[in-house]
Amino acid sequence: RAPRPGEVDGVDYTFVTAGQFQQLIDDGALLEWAEIHGGLHRPGTPAAPVRAATAAGHPVLIEVDLAGARAVKQAMPEAISVFLA
User: Fold this and answer.
1) Distance of alpha carbon 31 from alpha carbon 8, whole angstroms
2) Which of 21, 47, 75, 82 lies 20 to 30 Å from 27, alpha-carbon distance?
3) CB 84 within 8 A of CB 69
4) Residue 64 CA to chain centroid, in angstroms?
5) Topology at the third CATH level for domain 1-85
């Protein structure tokens, strides 16, 4: 989606076109992603910055739903998951 007023690309989110997002999926560059509201909204977590941070010894916190947590755990078996209800 396009940034909303006040949102900054690369700060709040990384905004990409639908085509760019599909390419990220095809390339396996996302740890997890979903289609919400019939595909009108497609959030995802890019793998590269997460892997870079963990490789540097930094903890990473990712807020995702249960399906996203499963996808992250499959991509990164060493990940520790905490479920809050």
Assistant:
1) 22
2) 82
3) no
4) 8
5) Guanylate Kinase phosphate binding domain (3.30.63)
Q: pLDDT tens, 27-78?
A: 999 999 999 988 778 899 999 999 999 999 999 999 999 999 999 999 999 9
Place of tokens 């807020």: 63
SS (H, E, C) 4-59: CCCCCECCCECCCCHHHHHHHHHCCCEEEECCECCCCECCEEEHHHHHHHHHCCCC
pTM to 2 decimal places: 0.84
**Structure tokens, 50:** 């997460």
Instruction: Residue count of the chain, please give it.
Output: 85
Indicate the residue type of 6: G
